[in-house]
Target: Cytochrome b pre-mRNA-processing protein 3
Amino acid sequence: MAIVERQYATLTAAARDPYLYTDLDVADTVMGRFEMLSSVLILYFRRTRSSPRAGQEIAQEIVDSFFEDVDHSIRELGVGDVAVPKRMKKFASMFYGRLESYAAALEKSDAAELAAALKRNFHPKSDDPALTMQGLASYLLRVEADLAVQGEDVVETGTLKLLDPQA
Model:
């Protein structure tokens, strides 16, 4: 479906914006890209949860596309066919865990809580106090607010856009 492909490409491009990696402390690694795309998709799903059926169906197809990409990436990294389902289950669990923890902070528009959750997930082994993820948290909160005012027509046509992180 062209609508799903167009919207998924837009979301993926937003998650790959170089500024996120050079200025907002997202690691330019396989896991850093997974974390960033997960964050963008979480914002998209939060926006579409109140959409009419068409918007929710598009969102479900985007979830499916995301997990197909994760599956493909795992296989490209050389994981054998037997281990792929176990890895996929782990990635799905990670994604839905993040959805839950980020949603709690996003519901309250709590930048500090969101930044703490982002740091736990994006940099789980870092105890560097200078690495706060505040910039990314602020950006994600701005994106969520902007998505909330975009109309259903952009959801249903797959033309929903995300703010430029440098704006």
In short: The chain has a mean pLDDT of 93. The CA atoms of residues 75 and 84 lie 7 Å apart. Residues 53-76 form the longest helix (24 residues).
